[in-house]
Structures are given as structure tokens and as C-alpha cells.
Amino acid sequence: MNMNYKCICLFLFLPIGATAFADDFKAGVGRKAITPDNPAWLAGYAIRTKPAEGVEHDLWAKAIAIESGKNETVVIVTTDLLGLSHEISVEVANQVKQKLGIKRSNLMFNSSHTHCGPMVWPSLSVIADYGVADQQAVSKYNQKLTADLVAVIEMALNNLKPVKLYSGMGSVGFAKNRRQKTDHGVVGGWNDSGPVDHEVPVLKFETADGNVQAVLFAYACHNTTVPGTNYRINGDYAGYAQIELEKEFPGAAAMFLMGCGGDQNPFPRGTLELAATHGKELADEVKRVLSENLKQAEPSILTAYTIVDLEFKEAEIKKFQEDLRSDNVFLQRRAKLMVEAYNKSWNVSRYPYPVQAIRLSKDITILALAGEAVVDYSILVKKIYGRKNVIVVGYSNEVMCYIPTKRILAEGGYEADQSMIYYGMKGPFKENVEEKILSAIEFVMKKTKNKRRPKSI
How many Cα atoms are found within 13 Å in the side-chain-facing hemisphere of 351? Predict the structure, then answer.
């Protein structure tokens, strides 16, 4: 009789403990189509000469709000866009703090960097020369996008429900390093020996009834499968991957996080069909990871957000005065910005660069770097803090230009130098850019209690 009593007590205790743990996380999802209504100029390729001519599939803004048992709430927002501007990122963050009480360190944005989405002006504005009607259209889209982002965040916060969070890791190989070394310097091409990051981190949010509420997955590769000759709106491989996953898990939100893919291109590339192929390959790998025994996360939400000034190399005003007389229209446009700034005494010698960390458990930290961070940063961070415990993403919060490392600055090439023309920046960063970013990373990782690994690793 005593033995039966003990068995019954044990049977009752385990479910009670499991249920309490399941309730430690709550999560809610919001989503809204952000496909432009009117003919829109597409961002990403300077060769385009006209607005979009149709929609292959919708673009989305999606938000997931995550709450721990201690009532700490973070919100992660993904967008099928080239990147958010500083203006929009700051305005949405301010509205969300005032209206919904979410502080800046607890709100993260990430953009897929599709080159087949609308211009988010003034990001990459040097590639376009807008007339009055075009400027009105892009400005109107910015205003609507700002309102839509606030709306999806509020939607996510209003839909909180108990969930379990699981994590896993996969890998796909279609990303290739594009920095090809030649006798004449680094050019855009293929570098089979160049660094890559093929890992696909996966987070699954599962409701009490066993349904998938949301899937977050990341990959470090440019969304440039579709070329600049395409004029149909689409999310490139990331868009197709999300569509594929949402077919597999009806009612769930598939959310793509762009990794440090600044110097990574999909291979092969050149058509919508190849974008769909890469998207399916990525989605199939995510599905495979979800079918395995994933690791369940115990809540311990901590956040940190900082800004570090990145310095540009010195450049005399004479250089930009000469560029104003160049036959290169893009050099002319960048020079016009610089000469106007000089005459108004604006400081264009630095850029205030945001770095953020969101820790969801002792085994899951998302490190968010702004701009087009190159893959070196992902590799460095994983070496320092451990590849299993940190998801490193670029294109977060705002996309202002490429973010090179000291190595890439020394090698030169598009990511180090030429790209700054199209982004309307003064010029290349100083060599201390890597040192400054790694110091900011150490600050936010320490604030979220992520310790550096031993130096011998």
C-alpha cells in the first residue's frame, strides 16, 4: 500500500512541474503585409531604370513578443526589405516605448535584405534620382511602413499565450564568399577558399496544445538570387523559404533573420526559379531540424543595447569637389551630399553604430549588428563566445552601409570601399572599425551575462 501511494505522488508531481515550466514563456505574433500599393522603385541594384512591374509574392513585417515568467518582454521584428533607415528605426522605437512601454534594448529589428523590395528612402538613395512624384511615393511608403511596424508590434503584445521555446541547428551550403582575389585587387565573383557561415540556427515556439506558433531561422547570405533585371516584387530565397514553412505549419509565423552575409552570395543565382530552389532547400533544412529532439529553453531574458561611433578615414573636400565634375553619376551624387554637408558644417566623420544583445535563455543569445556586416564577425563572435550559444545576425535595427573587418579594409574591394559611394557615405572606415565593434559586442554580451571563452580556444 505504501509503495502505491509513493508512485501516485510521483505521478502527480511530474505533470505539475512540467506545466509550470511550460508557462514560464509567453509569446505572441503579429504580421502585416508591407507590399507597396503603388508602382514602387525597387532597392538594391543601381542598374534599374523604372519602377516595379508586378508582385511575385507579398512582402511581410512580422513581430514576435516574448515574455518570461518575470514579466520581462522583448520583441523581435523581421521585414522583407533591403533594410530599415535610421529615421524609421528610431521613430518606431520611440512610439513603441511611449505607447506600449517596451524599452529600446528590448526591441530588435532585422531585415532580409531582399533586392526586390521597395526603396526605404534615404537608404541607398544615391542609386536613384527621383522626381517630385517619385519622392512623394517613397516618402508616403516610409510613413505607412512606420505605422505598420508599430501595429505588428502591438498585435504581437496583444496575443501573448503560454509557449515552450526549443532550439536547434542545421546547415545549408548555397552561400559562397563573393570576394574574388585577382592581380588587380578584389572583385565580385566566387572565392571557394573564402570564409563562410553555413549554419542555420532554428528557434521553435510551441503552444500548450502542441501547435507551432512561430519559427525563427537565420542564414548568412545575400538575398540576391534574383538579378537587377527583375522588376517583380519578391522576397528572394528568404521569402520563398518563409512561404514554404508556413505551408508546412498552417497558422504559424515563419520569420527569417539575416545573418552576417555582407560578403556572401547565393550560388547559383540569376532567376526567380533559383530563388525558389534555394528557399525550398533552406525551408527543408529547417523542417528537418524541427523534426529532431530539440533542446528546450529555460527563460532568462536579459537585454543590452549600445551605440559606438565608427570613424571614416579622412578625405579632403577637394576630392569631392573633383567628383562633382566626374562622368560617374553616382560619384557626383555622393559628392553633392558631402559638399553640402561641408558647407553646412555637418559632421560626416563618424557614424553612430548600434549593437544589441537579447538573451532568451542561458543557451540562446541573439547578437544583432547593424548594417551589412561581413561574415568575419559571425565567425569571430562564435569563436569567442561559443557557436552553440549565440545567433549572430547583421542587417539589424538599421542598414546604413557595409561593415567590414580590418582584413577586408586591407584587401579593399566593394565591401570596403566602392559600396560607400552608393550608400552616400564619406568613404572607407578607419582600421579601428573591427576593434570598436568587438568592444561594443563585449559590452552587450557581458551585460547579458555571456562570458568570453578562454583565449586558448
Answer: 25
67: nearest Cα among 1, 23, 121, 111:
23
Pull the grid cell for residue 18.
Answer: 512540467
pLDDT at 455: 55
User: What's the pLDDT tens digit per position in 375-422?
Assistant: 999 999 999 998 788 999 999 999 999 999 999 999 999 999 999 999
How does DSSP assign 70-84, residue by residue? Answer: T--EEEEEEESSS--
Q: For the chain, what is the radius of gyration of the CA atoms?
A: 23
- Assign 236 to helix, strand or coil: helix
Residue 246: CB atoms within 10 A of its CB come to: 18
Widest distance between CA atoms in the chain: 97
Q: Using an 8 Å Cβ cutoff, are 220 and 177 in contact?
A: no
Which whole number is the average pLDDT over 123-129? 87
Dist CA 54 CA 239 (whole Å):
16
* pLDDT tens readout for residues 272-291: 999 999 999 999 999 999 99
Question: Which grid coordinates are listed for 228?
Answer: 537587377
| Residue partners of 104: CB distance under 8 A and separation at least 6 | 93, 97, 305
d(CA 442, CA 450): 9
Angle between helices 86-100 and 132-158 (to 10 degrees): 30
Contacts of 138 (CB under 8 A, 6+ apart): 40, 41, 118, 119, 120, 121, 130
Collapsing DSSP to helix, strand or coil, 50 comes out as coil
Burial label for 334, CB within 10 Å (0-12, 13-18, 19+), is buried
Q: Which of helix, strand or coil describes residue 428?
A: coil
Mean pLDDT confidence for 163-187: 96
- Kindly report the CA angle at 50 between 46 and 55, in degrees rounded to 5? 100
Q: How far apart are the first and last CA of the chain?
A: 56
Residue positions counted in the chain: 457
Judged against a pLDDT cut of 60, whether residue 140 lies above it is answered with: yes
pLDDT at 14 over 50: no
**Comparison of pLDDT for 22 and 442, the residue scoring more:** 442
Task: Choose among 115, 84, 357, 368: nearest CA to 221.
Answer: 115
CA distances from 423 to 224, 317, 400, 417 (A): 17, 18, 7, 11
Supply the mean pLDDT for the chain: 93
Domain-by-domain residue ranges, the chain?
22-300+354-404, 315-343
